[in-house]
């Protein structure tokens, strides 16, 4: 079963509104989670690294005031797209890594399809 | 720029053929490499991974080869099936939980019957 759960899977919002996406690690604690964005026919691009109890680290070109990340617990990180515009429409995916038998495995959420109209 | 890339954006094969998808990476410090399959509208699905202390790893119908000398990674799919049609991404990272995976551009695999 899924070890990283993301919600909602699909959301449509009006331009100017804010949307919150949740990412949960289901059976392990994740001090670090990762947020990716994927445009059609493109690869996953890392947006930011979410750190539990501290500020997120954003990749170059990602506006931290627009994409608010909160990692208040060891199992939950949220991404809020503020004042969304049509160009923010994309597929957002979260990830967390867990120590495994042969090293650190990475798990991904199901993704959130955001459409801003 | 991206540290991981793929040589071909598309690959078309006949059902039953073997498929080989290639990937080049540039960060010699990376020590963990993964292949993912992504179907439309879904998140990446893990296929197989390999650590830098190995040069080959086999799974069910899939084999990953790692050549650290030329920083090249490949995914071989045996007896390709229509259900294998998807976009395939390679990804690289360090082996720590706080290290993000960096993805390559992706190769679209199309399998015809």
Instruction: Count up the helices of chain A.
Output: 0
Whole-Å distance between the termini of chain B? 37 Å
- Helices and strands of chain A, in N-to-C order? EEEEEEEEEEE
Residue share in helix of chain B = under 10%
Beta-strand content bin of chain B: over 45%
Strand tally of chain A? 11
What is the oligomeric state here? heterodimer
**Helix segment count of chain B?**
0
3D structure, described in words:
The complex is a heterodimer of chains A (117) and B (113). Chain A is mainly β and 117 residues long. Helices cover 0% and strands 56% of the residues of chain A. In chain A, strands 2, 4, 5, 6, 9, 10 and 11 form a seven-stranded mixed beta sheet that branches. The model of chain A has no long low-confidence stretch (mean pLDDT 93). Chain B is mainly β and 113 residues long. Chain B has strands at residues 4-6, 10-14, 19-25, 32-38, 45-51, 56-58, 62-67, 72-77, 86-93, 102-103, 107-112. In chain B, β7 (62-67) and β8 form a beta hairpin. Chain B is globular. Chain A binds chain B through residues 6, 30-32, 34, 36, 42-46, 49, 51, 91, 93, 95, 97-99, 102-111, 113, and chain B through 2, 32, 34, 41-44, 46, 49, 51, 89, 91, 93, 95-106.
């Amino acid at each position: 079963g899924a070890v990283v759960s993301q919600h909602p899977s699909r959301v449509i919002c009006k331009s100017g509104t804010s949307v919150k996406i949740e990412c949960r690690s289901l059976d392990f604690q994740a001090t670090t989670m990762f947020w990716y964005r994927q445009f059609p026919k493109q690869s996953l691009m890392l947006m930011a690294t979410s750190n539990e109890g501290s500020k997120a680290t954003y990749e170059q070109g990602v506006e931290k005031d627009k994409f608010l990340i909160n990692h208040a617990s060891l199992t939950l990180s949220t991404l809020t797209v503020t004042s969304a515009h049509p160009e923010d429409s994309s597929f957002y995916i979260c990830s967390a890594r867990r120590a495994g038998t042969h090293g650190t495995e990475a798990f991904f959420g199901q993704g959130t399809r955001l459409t801003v109209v | 720029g991206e540290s991981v890339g793929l040589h071909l954006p598309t690959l078309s094969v006949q059902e039953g053929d073997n498929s080989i998808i290639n990937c080049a990476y540039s960060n010699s410090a990376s020590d963990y490499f993964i292949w993912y399959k992504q179907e439309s509208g879904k998140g990446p699905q893990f296929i197989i991974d390999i650590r830098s202390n190995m040069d080959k790893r086999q799974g069910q119908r899939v084999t990953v080869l790692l050549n650290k000398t030329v920083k090249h990674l490949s995914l071989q799919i045996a007896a390709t099936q229509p259900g294998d049609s998807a976009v395939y991404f390679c990804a690289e990272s360090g082996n720590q939980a706080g290290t993000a995976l960096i993805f390559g551009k992706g190769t679209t695999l199309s399998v015809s019957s």
